[in-house]
Amino acid sequence: MNIADRIQQLRKAKGISQEELADRVGVSRQAVSKWESEQSVPDLNKIILLSDYFGVTTDYLLKGIEPLPEQPAKGKPDARIFTVIGTALNFIGLVTAIGIWVIWYTQLSVVVGFVLMAAGCAVFAVGQLLGENAQTASRWFWLVNVWMLALMPISCVFNALDGTFGGFWWRLSPIPELGNSYITYALCWLSYGAACVAAERWLWKKLPKV
User: Fold this and answer.
1) Beta-bridge mates of residue 132
2) Of 15, 44, 82, 151, which has the maximum CB count within 10 A?
3) Do the beta carbons of residue 151 and residue 97 sit within 8 Å?
């Protein structure tokens, strides 16, 4: 197929006559007829006008070279995947900290727990910066993770206050320790539950519903 064939094919695909094409590019009908019968070739300006009108490249008109298909743009990763991974790390951090505390009774358990939870929150933050569906991911991350993220800080504060006011040796731990009395111990758990429920209600209202 040569340039004459390509012009004729594109014209017929458009469903227009030689006269209509001539009007579009500013030549006579006889000129278009000569192009399609190989009696003459359009000059460079007319080639550009033809390529614009037919929506093809000048390379296609002159040489029959089809343009390469555009590569689909790579989509952003789904932020919800980061939320799942971050939540899993937070859960592992809490369970690991409690396990270390129960077995070895060491304050290192709190350090390990906080490090793993920091990694979980960092993964979530990366998802918020780079991923799609960030609002949905944010909403479910906080609604689920508020319970895990709050337990160790509340436990550490409770154990410190309970030990200080009770006048006995205390250690930082990932869970509340029975110190002065069952009453203060129960109050700690009630405070933890109330704080998490209040946070959940606040987050439910404030975070965008998507």
Assistant:
1) 78
2) 82
3) no
